[in-house]
């Protein structure tokens, strides 16, 4: 094992997310000022008092213009994502853990061991520093939970109205071990489709608190890192065809992308689709199909039939995969199309979504 | 999930299908009024399970689909007024006007906001006393009470910066228009359950008697719909027209009198043009004259707008049960959800959207 792998394990040992405390440091201002991004004393204050204590690592602490990393052998996986969620805080999470988990998951879906993240902030003048602090704390906890270090970053401040409070970009680096080659075009008829848990939790949690739509519910986001579960799947079945976390556009979009890329058909069983009752209820009220709603802590993997049961039971032993189910099969018929067997036994199309799902009128 | 799983139960559905098959002896054409029912039928594949004697045609009960083009164009013009907050149900945002839709107005800088309840629009009016807030009030009898309530509340609070564009439509006049047409093919109706939850079913009795058709208030889940079809077929086979409520857990004979009273207080009957179908006398609701100050179409001068409807769209024939969506030459070609020629292709209750989403012939 390389020096770097040991570092990752060390982080897991010291930074148990449950033990992290997050006191708000004393600062000269209550809100973000333009000067916090101007490179002077206030900038240094923001970085040293607010940001560094949350993201400390041996690569970040010297505050060089770049991080220099030792990497284990293998192919490099590299991904980036930008987070602009409204509202910033929602049941079950906030923009901070979303920004960490989102990129961790994008990198992990290649089969890579996730090594390091960069974080870039765009802050709007006037943002309460307590909000920024809250976001930073949840990023720290999420990174510790995923066992990933933040090694470089950047902060910009823009004038009031030039962004919406806080935008976060994260990029992630990982290393794909030898022998792992996942691809959306690798599906073969006979393969089985496994989903790691319930659908639509994140999208509906955000929707229930969005302006103009708010209603009381107990729906909570599923935001979570999937790198541990991905490792479990690949250990149980190195021949896994592909994995993807169905975020925007939901499971229907991911499966349509797979069917198109591999030119195979996909058949799902409606009865097998797991949706929490409270999420189902919110979807029914708004007229929204959970198959099209975003998830932030679920993955879909395509497994050769003979390994499917083995992978499923391995997933059941991991916290992120306890509710994993076999969702359906890859077939040779209707290449490029996903179909759903309804509870009445009829087969119908499960199409790509057209745009954002809009609540119906009545 | 309670109140849902029972009504999606495959065993119950199979039992009802068997009863329908053993009851039917001749071909019948039945129209489900509501677009929500159309989507449920396509989503669960009910159309594929019915005996070949039964043809389901899809009614005009999609509020977005029948909102006249003029109203949409006027709404778009109002939404472009600077500093105004324009609010709408989400489903209206993608509906094509002559040249535009509300999403495009928003992208050009219009302050267009989606609300789930008209009371949210009222909240915006309270919170922004120096800005005009307009709500696009569309829908059938189902949404009219909520929209009327918002207007009533605005009047009570003296919120002079709140107004509505009202394009409410009513089901019974549309049924009469369909039944009275020389080309009518509809022999029985599944009435829209949620409309009946407000209005009850007494107003359907004269229609059932005059045109000798069965009218069956029906719910939206597969078991509801199959149960409604079974009742309709039984009445057709027995030549026993009349109104028989089958949405028993929701619909009462009188509907919801309190809701109806609010509607009467704020809105009055008017003639209304239905998109794709034409003018139907007494088929709409408009803001009462004494409340004209809350009528956005009077408040903002947008009367002179030239509309241009697609020449090849046959949504009107589809909504009268004369054609099915996949019989339209433009279906899935010139007309897709991304590039719709008519509102029936974009609304979550539109028949063309349901066919495009769940069953494109030749693909499966």
Written overview of the protein:
The complex is a heterodimer of chains A (362) and B (364). Helix content of chain A is 30%, strand content 21%. Chain A starts with a helix and ends in a 13-residue tail after the last strand. In chain A, a hairpin with a 2-residue loop joins strand 2 (89-90) and strand 3. Chain A has 2 domains: 3-176, PurM-like, N-terminal domain (60s Ribosomal Protein L30, Chain: A); 192-349, Phosphoribosyl-aminoimidazole Synthetase, Chain A, domain 2, CATH 3.90.650.10. Chain A has helices spanning 3-14, 41-55, 95-108, 129-146, 201-208, 227-236, 250-262, 277-286, 308-316, and strands at residues 75-83, 89-90, 93-94, 113-124, 149-158, 166-176, 192-195, 242-244, 265-269, 300-303, 325-331, 338-341, 347-349. Residues 1-15 of chain A have low confidence and may be disordered. In chain A, helix 2 runs parallel beside helix 4 and helix 6 packs antiparallel against helix 9 (308-316). With 364 residues, chain B is an alpha/beta fold. Chain B folds into 2 domains: 5-63 and 180-243, HypD, alpha/beta domain 1 (Rossmann fold, 3-Layer(aba) Sandwich), CATH 3.40.50.11750; 65-170 and 255-298, HypD, alpha/beta domain 2 (Rossmann fold, 3-Layer(aba) Sandwich), CATH 3.40.50. Chain B has helices at residues 10-23, 35-44, 46-49, 63-66, 69-79, 102-107, 118-127, 144-157, 171-180, 193-199, 205-211, 222-237, 257-266, 296-299, 315-319, 351-358; strands at residues 28-34, 54-61, 85-88, 111-114, 133-139, 162-169, 188-192, 214-218, 242-243, 267-274, 278-287. Chain B has a 6-stranded mixed β-sheet with strand order 4-3-5-6-11-10, sandwiched between helices. In chain B, strands 2-1-7-8-9 form a 5-stranded parallel β-sheet, with helices on both faces. In chain B, a hairpin with a 3-residue loop joins strand 10 (267-274) and strand 11. The two termini of chain B are 31 Å apart. Classes of the chains: A alpha+beta (362), B alpha/beta (364).
